Amino acid sequence: MGAVIEPARMRLAATVGRVADSGRFAAALANNSRRRFAAALEDNSRRRFAAALANNSRRRFAAALGCLCVAALWIFSARAGAQAIAGSPVQLTWNAPVGCPDRVQARADLEQALGSTRLKRAVVRVTIVEAQRGQWSAELWMYGAAGSGEREVRGTSCEQVARAAVLIVALALETLAQPAPAPAPTAPEPSVRFAAGARAALDFGSLPRPDLGLALELAMNLGRLRLEAEASGWLPRSAERGPVAGSGGSFGLYSGGLRGCFELLGPSRGSFALGPCVAVEAGVTVGSGIGVSHPRQSNVFWGAGLAGLSVHSAMLSPLWVGLRVELGTPFFRPTWQIDDFGMVFRAAPLLGRVSIGARWVFR
Fold it and tell me: Which residues neighbour 199 within 8 Å (Cβ) at sequence distance 6 or greater?
């Protein structure tokens, strides 16, 4: 019996050993499973983290790339707009709320309205605001070569006032681009002009004493050259140099002459004319005796040449007034005398004339 029990014990011990080994195996298996699971979990976490990180990086990169593209597009558009403004003589500033036509649209409408008009430099500013509900206004300001101006446009919609503002700016720019009207042609000064006038004169040397005279004249202007024809008469003057007191002669002078003047400063420089003159005159000296028993009257030829300076000014056009100063000498100096007595008068070898007059110029 004891022998039978011993093998049973041995089998039980073997069984217990196997169970123990099975427990250790299970523990080892569980420990290994936990390790593998932890490793797998850690590896999976790392993979997911890397994937999430990569996905997040891709998203951020895409977002950053999109921002860069938008910024580059905005910069390019801004540069293009700036170049368009810089390349045009018109500088447009357009301020409008959101929903209204923007500056790009306004400029396109403006270019379409102007067409091929060659513009001049101008500065334009348009500001559109909603004055009150349903009421819009556009304030326009423009500066150009002709000056500056302002205008206000009102309407019931932003688009309406924007179109009106563009139309007004286009019309103003077209007006500015048009060449200034040529001045109205003035009637050219006629090459030949005629005038008539009268002069009061003072003479020294032609008669016995300084004398007053009156002259009537006709003149013709050929550019700067003026030709005059005149007839003059002088008050009689007496020379009491006879044999008895109060005896002698009375003398008068009547002549006609031609004169030529050259206007160094002509009317083209204003209402003033200045120039030299030369003249020749011919006429008669009329003398009669006074204080003698048998007075006689004689007419003697008179001729003289003169040269001087003439100054004229248009006081009330076409009325001109002028001053003339001349010196001259007679071509023939007759001697007036009383029989059986001697010379009573003879003209001086040097003459002097000063005259002032008015002339009416016929246009």
Answer: 214, 215, 217, 230, 324, 355, 356, 357
Residue 20 burial (CB < 10 Å; 0-12/13-18/19+)? exposed
Asked if residue 155 lies in contact with residue 123, where contact means CB atoms within 8 angstroms, the answer is: no
Judge if 214 and 329 occupy the same domain.
yes
- DSSP annotation of 121 reads -
Q: Number of structural domains, the chain?
A: 2
The string of pLDDT tens digits covering residues 332-363 is 888 888 777 778 889 999 999 999 999 888 87
Nearest to 228 by CA among 236, 218, 238: 218
The span from the CA of 111 to the CA of 115, in Å, is: 6
Same domain for 302 and 265, yes or no, is: yes
DSSP 295: -
**Backbone φ, ψ for residue 148 (5° rounding):** -125, 160
Q: Is the CA virtual torsion 60, 63, 66, 67 positive or negative?
A: negative
CA distance 128 to 122: 20
Which of 177, 212, 247 terminates a domain? The answer is 177
In sequence order, what are the beta bridge partners of 316?
Answer: 319
140 and 252 together in one domain: no
Least confident of 24-38, 93-107, 144-158: 24-38
The answer to whether position 133 is within a domain reads: yes
Structure tokens at 240: 């009491």
DSSP state of 133: T
- Structure tokens given for 26: 């299970």
* CATH number where 107 lies: 3.30.160.100
Same domain, 257 and 287: yes
d(CA 311, CA 321): 8
- Tell me which residue range forms the domain holding 308: 192-362
Q: What's the token pair of residue 128?
A: 């559109």
Q: Which of 222, 215, 282, 217 is nearest to 255 (CA)?
A: 282
Assigned domain for 327 exists:
yes
